[in-house]
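Collaboration report, partner site 2.

Our partner group contributed sequences for two proteins of shared interest, and the home lab folded both. The records are reproduced in the order in which they were received, starting with the first partner submission.
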Amino acid sequence: MLRYLIKTEIPNSICCMPEQSMYHPYQPPRCFQNKYFNTIFTNLWRDAWLQTSYVRKRIETPDQDFLDLDLASAGSNKALLLVHGLEGDAYAPYVKGMVKAAKQAGWDAVSLNLRGCSGTINWQPNIYHSGRSEDLHNAILHLLEQEAYQYLAIIGFSLGGNLTLKYTGERAERLDERIKAVTAVSVPFDLENVALNMDQISNVLFRYRFLTEVL
């Protein structure tokens, strides 16, 4: 199940990385150089003080299912669309952090809950995965056509970053001009390697949590 969710093909055209970065490597404080401590502590600490309130909007999909969008409005014609990672949702700390930043900048923030992640069982048995970019497309269409946003930026995290890049690559020549920016954060480009790493004993805690939430 876990491998199905995170393993898929990404178009080669969007996997091009510069040979040398124009930025200096990030050097975290010593206490955050341990990847496990960094992951767990920041998740718990940020969640404790980030408060977010949403208005939920449900949109129906062409396959007779639905997607739940959580809106934090600033009364703007600009929207930041957030796409969470594996088994995340609109209340994931990293999503709430970006919602806060968007509202402070005067933008509406819209959090897309992927299928099965909104707290409500979907009507169809289909689930989300790294290659299911049509759900992202349906959410974008709703925001541009029904909500009439004139400026749209998209940020995808981890698996949501895969979806965001895949969608952008698929529509590179016909991307709506109202989409002004696309950002992907902590994207696992080599999905097969990620799936294999999740099976290692050192990652048993993360694997257990992911599988518990999926099932």
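Second partner submission, folded after the first:
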Amino acid sequence: MLTSDLFSLPTLGYVAITLAFILMVKSLVKPTYPSNIPPFPARPYPILGHLPYVMKGQRISEYLKALAQLGGRPKDVSMLTRTSVSNNICSIIVGKRFDYQDPFLIAFIESFQKQAKAGENFSPVVIWPWLRHIPGNFLNSKTLNREIHAVIEQFCDKFIEQVTKNEDDMPECFISQYWKEMNKMKAQGKSTTLNVENLRWSLYQLFFAGTDTTSTTIMWYMYFMLRHPHIQKKVYHELSEVVGVERAPDLQDKAKLNYFWATVMETQRLASILPQSVPHLCIADVTIQGYTIPAETVVLPNLDAVMLDENTWEEPQKFRPERFLDDTGALIKPDSFMPFSVGRRMCLGEALANTELFLYISALIQRFELQPSVEGQPPEVSFVEGVICPPGRFEVRFIERAASETA
């Protein structure tokens, strides 16, 4: 039987590999990354800015309709959730949405799954691309690198071609705006990092980060609600009081749903969706609490060490949304809460991700009661180790609120 909601921490081998490469990277990173070559996915990209698009209610309703069609039968909805979230990213980037059964969309999502499988042991090639030059399939680096390039060549390039084939009539989307700005800078003779190669990698990053992290968070939220039905009831009660049941939640409701947000934040803290942040480079010698970090050292922030720290959080292994509420019920955000990392290099997609999480999860709990596949037997904790850590497979029964309340 489980004694807590916390799964095991990353394995010793995972940590040992990370430490070993941090020790050697100082002497290698500078000559490996000349400034005049296109960036590998883990390297910095041109600042994307705020995406001027917000999801519409009908997009969430498609997802809810698909769940309702299950008729209360138990189902692993991880693929359905990933498809729905990916479709939203497509609408932002390409300016169009796909049918859930569209072969192109399914193949696109499956390609990311292949990539995730290739890197399930946290292949360091994600962070140190020079590893791909080591002979053999070192730490699965060749396989992972091949899967990454397959996504770019088979999908990102096709997206760019579809949008830009008629430059006089391009849809309003990220690709078209990037393309117009790139050509504008070229016409003015200005130096710019906006180019086709950076666009390809930017699309890859947006699809990967915008789909996997959000869909993984939604699945972890479902998992925790199955294990804590009394918390699920409190979330539904708050939604009923603030939003009601006659309309779907919208962005104007966000600031009024403190307990809801506390459960989302606790999911982000405990689920360890992204155990480590992206690499940062120390640009000057710095001393922190007696430790000297030399210039040009690659620093890999360990988010787990902060968000699961027993000296910072009371009973960090337990799911307790109340830790994010003060005595008056107001929402609080401790400095040690950093699912999107911190500082100037924190995740640029935080606002978009939180918008997606709000619209998906609030609508989900408002319409359905989440129940385990077998009554009274919630799924046990499991997770898939990798750069992004989704939960292991589990099934959910989605019971429409109207049906459950009259039963």
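Feedback sent to the partner group on the second submission included the following. Residues 12-34+51-99+210-406 form a domain with the Cytochrome p450 fold (CATH 1.10.630.10). The chain has twelve helices and six strands.
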